[in-house]
Fold this protein.
Amino acid sequence: MTAIRFNKGDNLKKGLVLAFGSYIAWGFLSIFWKLLSGVDAYEVFSYRMLSTMLTMLLYFLLFGKMGKLKTEVSGLIANKSELVTMILASFLISVNWLVFIYAVGHQQATAASLGYYINPLFSVLLAVVFLKERLENFTKLSLVLALIGVLILTIQGGRLPIVSILLPLSFGTYGLIKKNVTLSSDVAMFVETIVVTPFVLVFILFFAKHAPSDYTMSQIIYLILSGIITAIPLLLFAEALKQAPLNVVGFVQYVSPTIQLAVAIFLFHESFKLENLYGFTAIWLAIIVFIIGQVILMKKAKNMVK
């Protein structure tokens, strides 16, 4: 089995488009969370989870999809193994959200971008080990270049920040276990948020440092909108996983940290040393090699279909 099945060229193309859309959105998402940097990270996360759950519930109501939701949730409850998978996915994505919100609010957006540069490497490793996906030569070269870049950045920094470890660990594993989930993307998102909702409600009611009345009007509006802001890229990502191999979706993720890095440097004015360019140049070369390889394979797939 190759990393890309030529008889599924259309699915691959659709998966790549969806993946690019989700990662571009995620790349700029740090700007939104920066607007909430004055709010405690745990509180932002809790309201984000609650808002996303309500957003998805409203989505099912407005679009007449409550029947679909009930049917798929009933099937999920009957399928114990998939239910356990979804519960695990819920907590993995929760860790990822919380760590990223904390990083942006505490001047660690650059460390977060490094974490998401590492994530595709971790995704490819998971794909090879657990899904037995074989890598094309261009993917192997991309992997080596990206690994060199990450090692350079880690050595220059003197240590690997905990943020840069937790983000790929949580999101890479989340992507792996979601690969074979049969739930629709929208239902899966609702399930993930509803699983964690009781915990965030307990936190908001009994442990949060601030009440909603303590926030400014703009902060309240941002917290309400956080559900919509969260739902769109995550739905795109979930659908991308169903259309393309995990190692392909994983490498496309380099788009997101590149945008995040630019935002951290030019908008948030976080420090970035000139020597850091060596590491990032290797990573950017990995992206170029990967994209060229994907274009070649898609052309081959298209020619074989004719």
